[in-house]
Amino acid sequence: MHAAAWTDVDGAEADPNAARGVNVEGTRNVIAIGAPVVFFSSDYVFDGRKRKPYVESDEPNPQSAYGRTKLESEREVREGWIVRTSWLFGWTGRNFVRTMLRIGTERSEVRVVEDQRGSPTYVGHLAGATRDLVQLPGGVWHLAAGGECSWADFAEAIFEEAELECRVVRITTEEFGARAPRPAYSVLRSERLEAPSLPHWRDGLRECLARLKAE
Q1: Where do the H-state alpha helices sit in the chain?
Q2: What is the mean pLDDT of each run of 10 residues along the chain (215 residues)?
Q3: Which residues are designated catalytic?
Q4: C-alpha 8 chain-centroid distance
Q5: CB neighbour list of residue 212: distance below 8 Å, 6 or more residues apart
Q6: What domains, with CATH codes, occur in the chain?
């Protein structure tokens, strides 16, 4: 299972060659081992102009250096599974949930983007779906949480579930001012009837918070 990647989207925009070295060359090295691989890709391979969920047959059109390196990495995979997923969060590492929890304990207000929509996906649920996926034929698969929301909706849900008093100020992507473009809409769904299904993103959030609390 190949989950290693350069995931700093704005950093990739600033140094696309370094991002390509990690994402594309790194994937090529994994493929060279000669074993079937599960490669984890991204919703950022799409441009976000669609207003209904992206399925496996939709044509990718990445708008950022990061998205382009992930698509190029997909094309390195000859035998195995390409898993496109989105907005990953979990109880370890750097991710939106952990960032919001920290901010919610330090501040009374946070500015969060309202005009990007996706499906926040809990890594625990993705792992279970991946276990089921490897019993199925290889190829491109979309595995993401049920439901959809904006980043601002997600932040409000985190504070509500964690019982934190932090107000979300909704802003636009332009106001946020990130270096790399992000897809405005990147909800993923599978058109393959046998695809494993994941629970709703809110269920994933509750499980993640329970895991964090237990630790």
Answers
A1: 9-14, 16-20, 26-31, 65-74, 96-106, 123-133, 151-162, 173-176, 201-214
A2: 96 98 97 95 98 97 98 95 98 96 97 98 98 97 98 98 98 96 98 97 98 92
A3: 66
A4: 12
A5: 91, 98, 101
A6: 9-214 (3.40.50.720)
